Prior knowledge:
The chain is mainly beta. It has eight domains: 2-100, Immunoglobulins (Immunoglobulin-like, Sandwich), CATH 2.60.40; 106-244 and 251-339, Immunoglobulin-like; 361-461, Immunoglobulin-like (Sandwich); 467-556, Immunoglobulin-like (Sandwich); 572-676, Sandwich (Immunoglobulin-like); 681-846, Immunoglobulins (Immunoglobulin-like, Sandwich); 859-958, Immunoglobulin-like (Sandwich); 977-1076 and 1130-1141, Immunoglobulin-like. Strands 10, 12, 14, 16, 17, 19, 21, 23, 25, 26 and 27 form an eleven-stranded mixed beta sheet that branches. Strands 68, 69, 70, 72, 74, 76 and 77 form a seven-stranded mixed beta sheet that branches. Strands 1-8-7-3-5 form a five-stranded mixed beta sheet, with no helix packed on it. Helix 8 (1167-1187) runs antiparallel to helix 9. It is elongated and about 175 Å long. The protein starts with a strand and ends with a strand. Residues 963-967, 1140-1172, 1179-1201, 1212-1223, 1235-1250 and 1259-1270 have low confidence and may be disordered. It comes from Clastoptera arizonana (Arizona spittle bug). InterPro entries: CFAP65, Ig-like_fold, PapD-like_sf. This is MSP domain-containing protein.
Amino acid sequence: MKIYNFGTVETGTKKTIFVKIINQSTISQVYMIQHNSKKSIKCFSAFKFFPDTSSVGLGKTFKFKFTFEPTIPDSYYCDYYIINNLFGIELELCMVGKSIGNSFNLSQNNIKLICPHSNESITKFIELQNKSVSPLLFIFDLDIYQSPSIIIDPVNGEIPSLSNVRIKITYKPVYETIFFKRIFILGLFQVPEILDVLCVNEKFGPITYKLPSFIKKLVQNNDGFELYMSDVSNILMKDKKPLASLSVNYLNFGFRSKLSEDSNIHFTLKNNSDEVFLFKWTKDSTSVFKITPVGSNLQPGGSKTFSVAFHPLFPETVYSSVFEGLIELEESKYLISAFPLSLGVLGHSFSKNSGSWPPMYELYPDSDVYLPPCLPPKPVYTTLLIKRFGCLPLSFRFHSPDVTNYTVKPMQGVITGSFKIIVVQLAPKIMEEGLYIEKWILKFNYNEQKIKHFITFNGSVEKMKVMINEGKPVEFPIAYPGSQVTLLVPIYNPTRHIIIYELEILKDDEVLDIQQFINILPNECKTSLWTFSPRSTGSFNTQVKGFVVHPSHILREDTLCTVNAKCLEVELITEPNTILVEIIKGCSVEKTFDLINVGLCKAYIYLNCKDYSKALIEPENITLNPGESIRVKVKLTSNVDVCHFQIFGYLKVCSKSNLLLDRTPISIAHVKVEATFPLMKIIDLHCQQHSCEFSKLNFWKMLNIDLLNLVLSSSLPSEGETYVSMKCPSYPLDTSIIFEFLIENDSKIPLIWEIKMGKCCYCKPVLTQISFSVSKKINFCPHKNEFTFSPTTGMIMDQHKTVIFLRVNYTVYECPPAVFKLKFWPRGYDMVTKSVKLIINRHSIHNIDDNYIDFYESEFCNQYHFCMVPFPINCFNPVVQAFWLYNNTSNIVKISVDASNLKGTAFSYLETINEINPNSSVPLLFTFLPTENKLFEAFVTIYLGTRIKSVYISARGKAYVNSCIYHEVNNVPRTATILTIKSQEVYSSVNHIDMNYLTIHGENSYIFFLNNNSDNEYYFSWSRLHFEDLLFVKISPTKGYLSPNCTVLCKLTCYSLGLPCCVVVNIACKLTNLTAYNSFVKQRTKQNIKLLECKEYFTITEFNYSYEDCDQFKKIDKPKTEIPIVISVSITVLSLELNKNRIDKQAMSPLVKKNFPGEPITFVIKTNCVMDILNKIIWCNINDVYLSGIRSSDTFHMYSYTKFLISELQNKRAENLPPNPTKKVIQRVLEDIILTNMHVVFSASHRKSASALKNLTLSLNSHKSESVLV
């Protein structure tokens, strides 16, 4: 809320301020101003604004004009306004101002005029002082025709600002006694001043000037408005009752002529005192009006009737007079006019046919007169100004409603001067709160039916009252013992009174402290500071009584306010509760934890580590509201050792105080400081643009990623420099491949890494002559661009990942190994650096070279190293393992193996191949049958065309092998995390598949998916692997189409053909972009048609003939072959003696382990019954799960796989393969359903699933025609 203060403004003047509005929105706005109906005063506002609506353009400004023009002196004004725009946004404004009256006073308030002789007059002077900065109008309320003994000059006028006017007062004795006269001086918006005049005629000798006691009492009363209005007011207080009162104060004779008969008007005078006095009326000097009798004795409480006659002297004239009543005391010979007792009379001699003139006047205020708020039972007053213009007199008369609460003095009269000041009084007969608005009529001149002016009197009766907290109970926030909770309670004054308010606590337990006395201005809302200081837990309820303190007397309008408070203990939790800080020696570190207030009270906490000074906490001083949390930082300096310490919280009294409560501190968090090291690891890799049948496992082993990760993630310092040898695959010249490494920061601290290339060759710069006198050394080394890392430096935040690219170019035939140095260190601490040297080898193949064979095993001293998997010595059957050779050339390579050295060893060679096709791979199959617990070694010679290589074979026999599987020594990622490196159009959901513990002559399968993320259509074709008497591996469907943005379900099936083995095979999928190929065919067809047209047509002219140039058509190249998808599969086929005690329980689902514990269970089932049960399970349960809306990825794969199983079942029945097809197929389908689908089906909580499994169990146990091992 914006507050604008006008300051102090004098009544009758105005002050203006401007409110500037800036349009900061994105469109033109329309701003509207209106009163705040909830806070605005009820009947009157001295503030005005212009305009009420304005349109403001974008970025432009506008000023609203606010004017403060008070008409009630010595008052405070406060009003509220709201500015709205098109968006409904409100801006609240508060206008505040104070008014002061035109202050004037007399130089003296009483004078004595002593005349020694009756025929002489005496004159004295007084001054009217105007202390305001604006001119002031004044008038003496004295009828010059009825007070001939006292002459005042001037009677009315204007006092300039900050000036004085000298007033001449002359007394000429008329009465032969002492004359006491009270004269009222009226000012616009000013309390009347009182001048007491004591006139003495000493013609009859010296007279004592001592005044009677009741006259002294009247003189001491200086309430100007009340004394002035006491003769016409309808409120008579007991202690201020006048001596005498009239039944009527104003008489209107209307039209009278000289020939009219006497028509007197009667009225009554009553004596209200306990004295007997002689009452006399002053005489009208014009003799137009006459009162009879002129005087009369009035007994205490008695009354007398008088009559008034009107005899106009001239026609077409307005007559007015005011008769003053004088009291002559018999015992003291005093003639007193100490109180206003007057009778106003009005009449005219204009006939109906007389001409008239329009009245020339001005009223201020014009039509609406506002009065101060009335506080019962005291009335309120204001003034009204009637200005006369021209030379003609102006007669006026007020006409009130039948029932009125207002009194006006004078009600009628004739203005011969320049103006007349009218006093308006509000004195409600029934003192009820509310608005008192009345419309009066002011009529001028003699023709009152034609010339009217309507005046509205606006007033209100308001008791002094306030609202505490909008009449609602005061609810303190929940505190804890010893704390202080402060609350700013709003106290609103809805009236226009200035109120002094007092608050008192009815039940004081010394836990509540309030501000007792509050001074509130009209229409103002103030806040009182209340403090709740509990000592123990529990609820606290009390009442606060508020009452108004009036300056003159106490009006106790009590207001009761309920106060509710509660005290509870503080409840804090931290996440995490234990903070593990991994620091690097000599480095500072920062950790954070969340401090959460789970209690119901607001907590003020000071955090500290007690005696441990090496830790800094930010922030230390915390304020937490209920349910809020704050992130706290713990900073440890560089000299921190490995240690444990505790963070404690101390409760404070309040947020602004540093005083801690004498209570047991709260344990906030436990900090464990441990040493750490910069750690990194490679979690995935991908090779772009390769055309051989290498899988991710091959690249993982070639690049020696396991060893590199061991070095990068090692926390032990290495002695000397660490080397990691990495081998790239061999490719023909002018080929390039790109490796993508996904590196993860595993040290929980930000790391900065850098890769620099070292010296790897002996090439030297060549001196080249640039000009005649200038030469330059230029490095023409052809090896420096063969290996390139990008980027070469970067930063990895903790637990974040980044990608590093390695580009290998095959542009040079013989290239020495490249040496790169990889360094990484914590951010800001380069003194703690780890480094490793990467030695990268690669070999290029000549196009004419058809004998080079690649491999992914290690090679030392021109020997292939083949390390077999260890096996137990108690086996009877040898285990076959494979050593793969890859032909990356475009020619067929002849191969022969000399295995004569294997005779008499534990090894043997199975001759299966004699050549390697182009861009393909073949395995060399070796068997191993250990007899002793030792390391077995042997050599085999391989003839690769014209090359001769030797293979070093090693294997170890062991007494016991604890579930050793071949692929476990390789940490290659199995799932398709390629999308975390780079999104490809077509990819497989797996990179590596483990087929564990396949029995001899057994079968196993695996389900995966082929995904197409592009808008192109692909044709895929999977390769098959068939090793005689060993394995048969295939993927179905073998061929097919992959629609845009679709997924194809594939099943890998592996059959054991009789020999135990432990091999790793690669299965490739060739992709053809049908969309690109179709586009190529269309373009090629169009080009051929245009080419034929070009050759068939020629141009003949008169000079020669010519053919159209056919060479303008460019040759359209055939789309390149897509990069194949290669999946590696590790297969372990064990003999029965090894497989007897090896049940791969990890491969089972939780449902299988729960329902089939221990040894395998043998079921005796009937074949035709099983098919019905399978159909019921598949179509009643799995189909319902899919169609019920649960379309998660698992459910979708389950549904697709189930349909695949059904089609596979039908195909095997049709083919009648393998032998005993019904038994084999049913066994396979049951195993697939249980191991793959059932845990998904039962997680859907369908009743049909449970009932189907129950029916399956009962059916399997009830039929005993055939035994099947599940």
